[in-house]
Specification:
- The complex is a heterodimer.
- Chain A is built from 13 helices and eleven strands.
- By secondary structure, chain A is an alpha/beta fold.
- Chain A has a nine-stranded mixed sheet. Chain A has a two-stranded antiparallel ribbon with strand order 5-6.
- The longest helix of chain A is centred in the C-terminal third of the chain and has 17 residues.
- The model of chain A has no long low-confidence stretch (mean pLDDT 96).
- Chain B is of the alpha/beta class.
- In chain B, helix 8 crosses helix 13.
- The model of chain B has no long low-confidence stretch (mean pLDDT 97).
- Classes of the chains: A alpha/beta, B alpha/beta.
- At the A-B interface, helix 2, strand 3, helix 3, strand 8 and helix 8 of A face helix 3, strand 3, helix 5, strand 8 and helix 11 of B.
């Protein structure tokens, strides 16, 4: 079952991901939007609506950041919406673009995701001190590394997973990123390098973690009619899913992301996917930490619970494996400008399905791909299924 | 007939402050009322939830985290629009129009009384390089705009003040209004000039409150209620965040948003085809400027119509029968849903003392306030 209109992606753009970019957030948005429009052979005047995705205002110190970025994103005198679901925003933004077109309200939508974390002094991590409950949690003075350490520990304990099993994800993704022209920290490293890196909050070590970054990405979404005019090679959005879990993360068993499964099931149902590992040719699950790639593969039903480390060890998730995972290099390799990082994953699936991923191109003839992001207090899942 | 209807509404507030309710309890109360009104179970019957909030107004970096539990949306399909409640309505409307969603819940709230430094927060919305370093209270932008508007249209100070008299009086009949009052034109004109020529009583005062609504597809709406309020058209537009580049006299965003909404709703002559309008009146002059942008009258004519009583509740074309933001209170991101609430109640015939006889088509409008140029318009009907 499809909506009134099938929605195609016809162009994608991505800026460099770097620790600190000289460009402002508006300029980053402009660059990515221009690249996506050029790739689609379209102009700003062809665009009927714009959706912006960008994470906390606290990074930039600008209230109503969406309004501030509007002109950079090409929304001058256009219908414009900003959606915000924490770290899930990057993949959620094209979902919002999808309903702008699938509803029949517009025949095109420019989707822009931007993040400029470097304006936050002394470190972007400080913006995250205010994501916690002001009475129960903030007084403890916790940060993201701590709570993800709790989750990682629980995941390892439940399935008897070793640090080495998880470190392989970081090795693979940073290696994959060597071929990504936008990548911030591509590297050839070994499992030993990860295990010997600085301890942040046990069991999280320096090389288990993605960096903070500046960057932007953009997609051009159009209706079926417009797609026929502008390209011979559209990529269709066939499934969308999102889900939020309870705010009270302390009351949940963190070993498994139920909300990701819920979002995935929503997207699979829409796309008519019954057997995800067989029907999905390439996936970009969210990997801000190396264990999260494994955690999310399981939540996305790409393997059984606790099985993802085994698949990784066997090489199944390598670019030339049976189920390539994060061929882009993921957040661990390309970088993590929050909302832009999620959209980078959707861009990668778009390029992989079009056969335009260059040196990163996976072998075979991928027809169905998936991207996923994760956000809020270990609470949000957003999933998109693309088909050629 | 439209494909999307509003089938349930719930409101708490609006009050200058609601110390007995936290923002979560505020949302819970309004949600319970809306679900009861629509006759639905949020744990089973809702396909998506839309909440509207801005981080800085809530004191969180990612406010989206704190909304699911009190709405009954745990492990369900919820997301946040960083915008006015009426922009949330636009997204809920599109979701249903995709054909994949039958029931969508919309939420917007204000806990303005928790904000000790609301104006400092608003100042943080000014361009950090070009405008913010100039300092000053951010509402100077409104004073400048009002001056330009009065100059270009020959609208008078008295006509602007008349908006305040009318709206505060309308609010006396509205149980959801925080600032109803029977005041005279002179009282408005003699109130302190805050940002020349904008006067103290011409500025809406913040209030606490929450509005939750249940939207449904035609198929579901007809099962749930005998009194659906149909969304005939929605339009929204952002002009530019740059103070230096915008049109200071005409609300261009609202004009473009109205054109979009009217096109879908097949409205050619708004004055004749719409029975009443709930128009953003964060500042008194904005009601007049917005009426013109909404094509309810000619450019520069709104002041005269107001002075003649045409826009009074018993006038030919009632504007802000609820009391508007001047009378109900400025509900931050819930401002648009305050308007929407009144439109729904009027079209259901449930507006009690405020009821406009035989109202069939209503308009709700929102503007996101200083320093934005984002306008949203919804056209609603009961037939």
């Amino acid at each position: 079952m499809f909506g009134k209109k099938r929605v195609a992606i016809v162009g994608a753009g991505l800026t460099l991901f770097r620790r600190r970019m000289k460009e402002t957030g508006k300029e980053l948005s402009y660059e990515a939007a221009k690249m996506a429009l050029d790739a689609a052979g379209m102009e700003q005047r062809d665009i009927k609506s714009v959706v912006m995705g960008t994470a906390p205002d606290a990074f930039d110190g600008v209230h109503m950041k969406g309004e501030y970025l509007a002109d950079g994103a090409g929304a001058y005198r256009k219908p414009y919406t900003r959606v915000f679901v924490g770290g899930g925003t990057g993949v959620f933004t094209p979902l919002a673009g999808w309903w702008h077109v699938a509803s029949g309200q517009f025949d095109s939508c420019l989707v822009v995701a931007e993040e400029k974390m470097s304006s936050c002094y002394p470190h972007p991590q400080y913006a995250f001190t205010t994501i916690f409950d002001p009475i129960l949690e903030r007084p403890i003075g916790m940060n993201l590394i701590w709570i993800f350490a709790l989750e990682m520990h629980r995941y390892m304990h439940k399935h008897g997973i070793k640090k080495e099993d998880i470190a392989r994800v970081s090795v693979k993704n940073k290696g994959n990123a060597m071929d990504h022209p936008c990548a911030q920290i591509p590297a050839k490293i070994t499992v030993e390098d990860v295990l010997n890196s600085e301890i942040m909050a046990w069991p999280v070590q320096r090389l288990d973690v993605s960096p903070t970054s500046d960057g932007a990405g953009a997609l051009v979404l159009v209706s079926e009619d417009v797609a026929k005019e502008v390209t011979d090679n559209p990529v269709w959005i066939d499934g969308v899913g999102w889900c939020i879990d309870s705010t009270t993360w302390t009351n949940r068993d963190l070993y498994y992301p139920d909300y990701v499964e819920c979002a995935a099931r929503m997207a699979y149902k829409m796309a008519g996917i019954k057997n995800p590992p067989k029907e999905i040719d390439v996936a970009e699950p969210y990997d801000p930490f190396d264990y999260k790639e494994l955690h999310h593969m399981e939540g996305l039903l790409l393997c059984k619970k606790g099985e993802a480390p085994k698949l990784t060890a066997e090489g199944v998730t390598q670019r030339d494996g049976d189920l390539p995972i994060n061929p882009s290099g993921g957040l661990l390799g390309v970088g993590n400008p929050i909302a832009a990082a999620g959209l980078m994953k959707v861009c990668e699936i778009f390029w992989q399905l079009r056969g335009e991923a260059g040196k990163r191109q996976i072998p075979g003839d991928p027809r169905t791909g998936l991207a996923q992001a994760w956000g809020d207090l270990m609470q949000y899942g957003s999933v998109i299924v693309l088909r050629r | 007939m439209s494909e999307v209807a509003i089938v349930g509404v719930g409101c708490v507030g609006f009050q200058p402050l609601l110390p007995e309710l936290s923002y979560k309890e505020l949302m819970y109360e309004a949600a319970v009322r809306a679900y009861e009104d629509a006759g639905i179970d949020p744990r089973k019957d809702v396909d998506a939830f839309v909440t509207c909030a801005e981080d800085y107004l809530e004191g969180f970096s990612i406010f989206d985290e704190f909304v699911p539990d009190q709405l009954g949306a745990v492990l369900r399909h919820l997301f946040t629009v960083s915008g006015d409640g009426l922009l949330g309505l636009a997204n809920a409307y599109m979701l249903i129009k995709t054909g994949h969603f039958d029931t969508v819940v919309l939420e917007a709230h204000s806990k303005a009384s928790d904000l000790l430094t609301l104006m400092d927060v608003i100042a943080f919305a000014l361009d950090p390089v070009l405008n913010r370093p100039l300092g000053g209270h951010p509402y100077y932008v409104a004073g400048m705009e009002m001056n330009r508007y009065l100059h270009d249209t020959c609208t008078t100070m008295e006509q602007c003040a008349q908006v305040v008299v009318k709206n505060k009086k309308n609010a006396l009949g509205n149980p959801f209004a925080a600032y109803g009052a029977d005041i005279s034109l002179d009282q408005v004109l003699c109130s302190d000039i805050c940002f020349y020529p904008l006067k103290k009583l011409e500025i809406s005062t913040p209030a606490d409150g929450c509005v939750v609504m249940v939207l449904a597809s035609k198929k579901v709406a007809e099962k749930l209620t005998d009194k659906p309020v149909w969304i005939e058209g929605v339009g929204w537009c952002t002009e530019t965040p740059n103070l230096e580049m915008r049109d200071w006299s005409k609300a261009v965003d609202t004009r473009l948003a109205a054109e979009m909404a009217y096109k879908t709703a097949k409205i050619h002559n708004p004055w004749n085809e719409i029975d009443f309008a709930e128009v953003n009146d964060l500042f008194a002059y904005k009601e007049l400027q917005h009426m013109e942008a909404l094509k309810l009258c000619e450019y520069g004519e709104a002041g005269r119509l107001t002075e003649e009583g045409v826009t009074a509740r018993n006038g030919e074309f009632p504007v802000n029968p609820s009391g508007g933001l001047l009378g109900m209170g400025y509900g931050l991101e819930a401002s648009g849903t305050e308007k929407l609430l009144e439109a729904v109640l009027q079209l259901r015939g449930e507006a009690d003392r405020r009821q406009i006889p035989d109202a069939e088509v209503g308009l709700a409008h929102a503007w996101r306030g200083i320093p934005t140029t984002t306008g949203i318009v919804a056209v609603l009907s009961n037939c």
